[in-house]
Amino acid sequence: xxxxxxxxxxxxxxxxxxxxxxxxxxxxxxxxxxxxxxxxxxxxxxxxxxxxxxxxxxxxxxxxxxxxxxxxxxxxxxxxxxxxxxxxxxxxxxxxxxxxxxxxxxxxxxxxxxxxxxxxxxxxxxxxxxxxxxxxxxxxxxxxxxxxxxxxxxxxxxxxxxxxxxxxxxxxxxxxxxxxxxxxxxxxxxxxxxxxxxxxxxxxxxxxxxxxxxxxxxxxxxxxxxxxxxxxxxxxxxxxxxxxxxxxxxxxxxxxxxxxxxxxxxxxxxxxxxxxxxxxxxxxxxxxxxxxxxxxxxxxxxxxxxxxxxxxxxxxxxxxxxxxxxxxxxxxxxxxxxxxxxxxxxxxxxxxxxxxxxxxxxxxxxxxxxxxxxxxxxxxxxxxxxxxxxxxxxxxxxxxxxxxxxxxxxxxxxxxxxxxxxxxxxxxxx
Length: 430
What we know:
Blueprint: E1 6-11, H1 24-32, E2 38-45, E3 66-70, H2 75-79, H3 84-91, H4 103-114, H5 125-138, E4 143-148, H6 152-164, E5 167-172, H7 189-205, E6 208-211, H8 214-221, E7 228-230, E8 249-254, H9 264-276, H10 280-283, E9 284-289, H11 294-302, E10 309-313, H12 317-326, E11 329-333, H13 347-352, E12 358-361, H14 367-375, E13 378-381, H15 386-402, H16 417-428
Parallel strand pairs: 1-2, 1-4, 2-3, 4-5, 5-6, 6-7, 8-9, 8-11, 9-10, 11-12, 12-13
């Protein structure tokens, strides 16, 4: 007789049909948890405001998961009545450069940062806690997981821990007060202190903290003695038809291309190669897939690279995977800041199994640099290494001309979603 599966309540905001990277982590954990004898119960908003929607992801939800929905009120729902495009961009992290922010941008950001702490989903906390005080006891649930951002979901875990004594795991897909956009929220001194206080309370009340990078672990260890486990994001097996490689020398960036992720050293290198190598411009294509900030597009125009630009906008996850497999080179760009060293973009792991070489640009000491180097999946550059970047681009171009451009990855299995789920279950059972 099989033992009763362990019930785990997972509280997350992003869930299909949400698109973008935020949905993938727990969608995939939930897919594999039943294989390890865990019954996932997933709590999500009934009427969310998702900046990106991908209906195709609904088919990937495990039929073994129990899904619970509860209504949520979000200020984005009101703000979108005035400017849907603006609120979608801000809620997805595309924040205009401070010098280019309109009066309405400034108002939205001030309201977002100062009236809704820690974020615009905080009004979901009290009704969720009220609902679960009864549900948890009636269904004999002793373990809950909250996933943020939005970090207000950790406040649900905090209250349930205090009221019911459940075992609580707080999963941080991104840091809290040190995340890149936090400084753009025009926080008052009161709001900044409130964020810090809530972060401290969450980190010191949870039974275990789960993070996606070693740098975030080190950062949190200066705030708490709570055990911290690192479980990165990963890749899953994808049913993608074998792709014919692009005929052009395509440099593809997949995902949000934020204003601060604007690698002028890359654009400069491409312009120089166009001027120095006769046929380079006839082969070059810059392929952008996902939300792209206006500042990035303006910079590409200033460098007169528009002739080579193919801006495809948002595509479904399955289409994004296909582009990863057929593009010649994949671009991974992170903001040049001390605060972003801990960021390991979720798409990195999909990039790594694509068979295509990665050109990654980020701050010196980035956590993802070590992963790329150790798996032999590409080359990392900090923002001072333009000469090296140009040289590697030329080397990749010559390999492209010879039909020999590819990645020869090693040691990827540790990053498979199923392996990572096994690691999660070990932590849950401690």
